[in-house]
Structure formats: structure tokens, C-alpha cells
Amino acid sequence: ILFGLCQARGELRREDRAVLVEGQMDLILSHQAGIKNAVASSGTALTIDHLALIKRFTKNLTLALDADKAGLSATHRAVLLSFDQDMAVSVASIPEGLDPADLILRDREAWGTAIHEARHVIDFYLELLPKKYPDTHMLRAQISEIVVPLVAHLKNTLDTAHFVGRIASLL
Length: 171
Hints:
Shape: globular
Radius of gyration: 16 Å
């Protein structure tokens, strides 16, 4: 089941973007906060069938999953599935330790800003990883493990060349 799809259909087309959150509470609060193009998978169980449903309305997907370790793992898996479906994927930056519902309850405007300022997933990782891994060797290992497989999944050769250049400039 892809929760909220029926309610979000019109907005998905209008915004030409789907915002994917993890749970029903994140979905309900997102809609109440004005992000009406939000849909939710049940937990972190995003499937190719979910993506096929979303792709009927838009090829653009913004992931707004929890900022904990499980959420980042789910984000990585969702990105690989989405790239395989030739979708454009961005990530909303949510403060660590919060989920979308927590952020909305604390600061509705911050939630809207996080969605509207979502960055391409590879840009997201290339900004996040140097902060988390200041040691060059650890950074290289993390980029090799996380970012390089994403670049390999890109379908557009110009995007691939762009991100290879960004990676090279970091290392």
C-alpha cells in the first residue's frame, strides 16, 4: 500500500514531485502542514510497485525519511530502486534524531523549507559525508561504499561525469 496516494494524486501532477515519508503520522502531519504531495510507504518497505505507482504521476521523488541510521539505510535502498526506475531523486535534510512528524510538530516552516530545499541525493551525500568523516581515509571508504554505487546507477552520462568530477574534487 502507498498511503495517501489517492489524496495526493492531483498535487503530484501539479508539483511534478512526490514527497515520500515513512509512516502514516508523517503523512498526515505533512498534509496538515501544506505538503499535499506527500505519500507514505509502510515503514521502510518501499518497493518497485510503489515507485511504479508514483511514476504514473511524476518521475521526481523527494525522500524525507527519518534522519537516524535506519532512515539513512532506507534512503540508500530507495535511491537505488528509484534510479533503476529512471527517477530523479532528491533528499530533504532533516535534523538528526528527528522524523518528519517531530520536525513538523516543532517547526512547520522548517519542514516546508526542508522539502523545498531538497538536494539531489548525490549532492546530499557529498555534503553530509565530509562532515561525518573528517578523516580522509574514512571519507574515501564511505564515498566508495555509498556514493560510487549511486553514480554507477545514473542513466544520464552528463550527470555521471558531473558527479565523478565532484567526487574527485573532494578527494
